[in-house]
Amino acid sequence: MTNTHKFWETTPLQKMTPDEWEALCDGCGRCCLNKLEDIDTEELIFTRVACRLFDDTTCRCANYAQRKSIVPECVVLTPDNLHEIAYWMPETCAYRLLYEGKRLPDWHPLVTGDPKSTHKAGVSMQGRTVSEHAVPVEDWEDYPLDD
């Protein structure tokens, strides 16, 4: 996917091709982090506890094609469900930003043309997570994502 045509600036999310939709992902891996929600305040807390399929070397799902069948609670983001899920996405997420009418950050790979720009900008979870296999659910709150 080249960025000579800045499709994300002209094409509504609902009209993007599957390749364009997938290209929006900056590869930060934050959507693969387990999140906690404070029942009283509804505050969303990202943890460093990652989905069991998350590879924090590549910041990608180890089995993207079958993720939903392996991890039934995995949320598959689509243009049709984005309005329900945007709140749960990281504030820097391209899907959320575009949904909210905002621009992509300067470090986004579509803007820079560099697939590693998210890592270089220090935004990704590369080397910063612990697997959910290693941490019991009741201890997730001990692993907040401190940015």
UniProtKB/TrEMBL annotation:
Q: Which Pfam families match?
A: CxxCxxCC
Q: Which HAMAP family match?
A: UPF0260 (MF_00676)
PANTHER family associated with the record: UPF0260 PROTEIN YCGN
Q: Which family does it belong to?
A: Belongs to the UPF0260 family.
Q: What is this protein called?
A: UPF0260 protein BG454_13305
Name the source organism. Answer: Roseinatronobacter bogoriensis subsp. barguzinensis
